[in-house]
């Protein structure tokens, strides 16, 4: 197969972890005979420094012309400490999601048998956890108008807006995911307080009869936050709005033992995008110590979701499992003896794929 992949390494550890994902994708290309072309483009603080905006038009065109986008991370502390900065790297991420129509952010949480003891939660509670969030990504309070401050600057406001159409397309994707999995869908909302949440619930209730094989549960977001750490195995597919999804997926990601492990896919109207759920981790940037596995597993999701190539996806996740079992891990996971460098883990995975 021919594949055109846009590479957006971004800020912080983004370039280092994406470099390892590229090694792995190239190894897969060789092994399975695919013609893979990469095209790199700038985003985030790196793009602000170069051209004054975090998501330049040229980068947008590279994404539109690609079959899939591999994205690293965005964010730089020099902007976090300056609330008056007019352009911020994160605006680039939001603009990219909106302009590429990436309305559904697929964030799985699963455990690795060899890392169960690394989780902050007890083994018996998490063993076998396998859930996936579909976070709505281009609506809600992240984008709603009006937003800003009153004239005196003494009040600030954001607006949460959802249309039936936005809810329905995400919910339908949730039902379809559930049909392919354990057939349980949880609609996460705050319908006891918020009008938008009541529209979510009403919309999901209206379309549910079209998916009679899927059992639907409705749960308030605060209760889900609690049950996620009490009994994560209770969940299969969860659908939720943008802000709730942002918060709950960070919470869920530590179940697996390290935030450096969880990948994500963003699916929508135009191209598809794959990114680790961790941020730019600026303290580690350039040190060759960051865990590349979330980026590598994002590449695995890319083969599955963008190209429908399950064997390729599995070859990557098998290599990752083997690296964990063999202790070929970065310092966040290393026990006592040796911690491998980011680049060494990438090299090991690529050579493992070549000989598997
Ligand atoms: C994420 C991040 C972003 C978000 C930030 C960087 C804008 O936290 O992808 O979860 O809030 O969506
Ligand atoms: Mn987040």
TrEMBL record:
It is found in: Cytoplasm. Its cofactor is Mg(2+); Mn(2+). Binds 1 Mg(2+) or Mn(2+) ion per subunit. It catalyses: (2R,3S)-3-isopropylmalate + NAD(+) = 4-methyl-2-oxopentanoate + CO2 + NADH. The keyword Amino-acid biosynthesis applies. GO terms for molecular function: 3-isopropylmalate dehydrogenase activity. Keywords: Amino-acid biosynthesis, Branched-chain amino acid biosynthesis, Cytoplasm, Leucine biosynthesis, Magnesium, Manganese, Metal-binding, NAD, Oxidoreductase. Residues 4-349 form the Isopropylmalate dehydrogenase-like domain. The keyword rRNA-binding does not apply. Its EC number is 1.1.1.85. This is 3-isopropylmalate dehydrogenase. Substrate binds at residues 97, 107, 135, 222. Coiled coil: none annotated. Pfam families: Iso_dh. Mg(2+) binds at residues 222, 246, 250. The record marks 142, 190 as: Important for catalysis. NCBIfam families: leuB (TIGR00169). It comes from Cyclobacterium plantarum. Pathway: Amino-acid biosynthesis; L-leucine biosynthesis; L-leucine from 3-methyl-2-oxobutanoate: step 3/4.
């Amino acid at each position: 197969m021919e594949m055109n992949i846009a590479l957006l390494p971004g800020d912080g550890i983004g370039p280092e972890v994406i470099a390892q994902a590229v090694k792995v994708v190239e190894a897969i290309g060789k092994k399975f005979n695919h013609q893979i072309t990469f095209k790199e483009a700038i985003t985030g603080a790196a793009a602000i420094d170069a051209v004054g905006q975090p998501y330049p038009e040229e980068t947008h065109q590279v994404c539109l012309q690609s079959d899939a986008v591999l994205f690293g991370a965005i964010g730089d502390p020099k902007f976090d400490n300056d609330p008056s900065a007019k352009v911020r790297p994160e605006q680039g991420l939001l603009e990219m999601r909106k302009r590429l129509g990436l309305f559904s952010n697929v964030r799985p949480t699963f455990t690795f048998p060899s890392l169960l003891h690394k989780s902050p939660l007890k083994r018996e509670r998490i063993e076998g956890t396998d859930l996936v969030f579909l976070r709505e990504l281009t609506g809600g309070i992240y984008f709603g108008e009006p937003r800003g401050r009153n004239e005196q600057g003494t009040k600030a406001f954001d607006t949460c807006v959802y249309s039936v159409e936005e809810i329905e397309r995400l919910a339908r994707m949730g039902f379809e995911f559930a049909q392919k999995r354990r057939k349980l869908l949880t609609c996460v909302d705050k319908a006891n307080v918020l009008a938008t949440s009541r529209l979510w619930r009403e919309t999901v209730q209206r379309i549910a009869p079209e998916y009679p094989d899927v059992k639907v549960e409705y749960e308030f977001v605060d209760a889900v936050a609690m049950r996620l750490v009490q009994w994560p195995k209770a969940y299969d597919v969860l659908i939720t709005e943008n802000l709730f999804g942002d918060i709950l997926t960070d919470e869920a990601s530590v179940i697996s033992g390290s935030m450096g492990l969880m990948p994500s896919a963003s699916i929508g109207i135009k191209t598809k995008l794959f990114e680790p759920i961790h941020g730019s981790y600026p303290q580690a940037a350039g040190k060759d110590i960051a865990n590349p596995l979330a980026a590598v597993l994002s590449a695995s999701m890319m083969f599955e979701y963008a190209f429908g190539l399950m064997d390729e996806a599995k070859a990557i996740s098998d290599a990752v499992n083997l690296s964990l079992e063999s202790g070929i891990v970065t310092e966040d996971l290393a026990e006592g003896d040796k911690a491998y460098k980011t680049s060494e883990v990438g090299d090991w995975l690529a050579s493992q794929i070549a000989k598997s």
